[in-house]
Amino acid sequence: MTADIFRRLLPPNRRLSGHVHRLRIGQDAPGTVFHSRWADWRRRRATRAIVRTAGSVGKSRRFLAARFRWISLMALVVVAGGAALSWSRTPTYHASAEVLVQSSILTISTAELPDMGSEKAVVSSGVVTASAARALHIPQQDLASGLSVTVPLDTHILKIGYTSTDPQVAQRRAQALAVAYVLNWRSRQASVLPAGATSSRTVRDTPATVIISDATAPGAPASPDHFVDVGVAVVVGLALGFGTALLRDRFDDGLRSPSDFAARVGAPLIALLPPLRCRRGDATAPLVMVRAPASRAADAYRDLRTHVLRAATRRGAKTLLVTSPSGESKTVVAANLAVALTQAGHRVTFVCADTNDGYGDQLLGTYDGEAAPRLLDARTDLGQVLRDAPVEGLRVLPVNALDNDHGTILQTPVFTWALSGLRARTDFVIIDSPPVLLGADAGAMAELAEMILVVGDFRRTTRRQIDATAHRLEHVRASVIGCVLDSFGRPSRVPAPAPLPPTRNGADPSAHDDGVLADVQTVAPVGGGEIR
Fold first, then answer.
1. Over the stretch 143-169, which tens digit does the pLDDT of each residue have?
2. Concatenated DSSP letters of 281-310
3. Residue 417, beta-bridge partner list
4. pLDDT band at 309 (very low <50, low <70, confident <90, very high)
5. Strands across the sheet containing 319-323
6. Cis bond leading into 224, ω under 30°?
7. Using CB atoms within 10 A as the burial measure, which of 13, 103, 142, 494 is most buried?
């Protein structure tokens, strides 16, 4: 009751409404509060990157998100260097004595205030340092390196200090220099008076220069100050990181963020795919829908499947063309999407239309090295051209079924007839198109497809490539249902190779009236591994 009242009073977009909802769940079903919070946290984490693409994030925040690692790295390097330099320095100690300088006697009847600049120079003169060196029994040149003399503002006080790596040495030498200066001052005053004039009242009433604060041995080093050094290093590191990040951002043509990719394509971002770490020579490793069905990547492909199904339902479409600017993992995305659709109970045909660099038949396990019958004319039997994939409900039109110059087929009714036949025989037709920027074939195929999916790579695709791709697909912009960004986020490791599942029935698909498997069932992927 109380939770409902608070929920009505608060705005619907406040985060507290989520806490009130969890409170209501806890009241209705005790013991489920922790599970609800855990589920909410996972849901927020999974959708955080996609929410950033809604346009509410400013350019400065996107810049910080894109360059945060670089700025942090530069700052850490500078701070580490500054800390190492600070701790490598030898500690030094500083001791000082304070001397009150009185008025100087000019004649028996006159005196004047001291000139503190002159008195400061007297302390550093050779006469004072030589006297202190004789008292300490050390060479005079040893006193010149650590001596310092300062005058506090609007005072007649000399602070005679000395810096050394030994606190006792610093104390003794500072005190010796102060004593030597006082003796020198008194001797200078005595030299200006004639003999027998010491009984004068002016001389008797003039106070003498004295040490008002003796030098003491310091208990802590004066330098280095690690706190100050690290603080300066932090400021310098952040400034250097921001400066270099701005330069990199100015001259870097890479993607800034997922929202940058979606904005340049002009379509909503419907999937973010993590990069995969696969063993070399493992051709089927990127097929995570079979190799690692419980992984984060497989979850992303299932979300992509949901978006595609919704778009297909709204449009009444069956044909989906998957393309990219220059070939960035579009074949992997198309193959995993095809498997995801078959696992949902749909009959899918995968068309390997990229005759240059396409490897969809190898990825799906249908490549056997033998030349398949080609689509020569409308009299070609599609049942002889298509091949069954090891996943039930999925059939593949291999690369070698198309002519080497597949641009010629696109200009004839053969390919259009083939797509019409595939649409009539299956639920979905996934076309692995050639890259958009490597020729005009992708643009021509896009005119035959009812839906288009643009794939980009966060690490490889540049903004110029995306702009050029969007320009070439301008004539079919209405068919673009969304874009997919690959290689975004933490890398994922693919488990050890595992055999693809065989079809459940060994029947010849061409024996059925519709030319496809009649008994469509979702195949439980094997492999057992998960991407960590």
1. 878 899 999 988 889 999 999 989 999
2. T-TTTT-HHHH-TTSHHHHHHHHHHHHHHH
3. none
4. very high
5. 269-272, 480-486, 451-457, 319-323, 428-432, 348-352, 394-397, 387-388
6. yes
7. 494
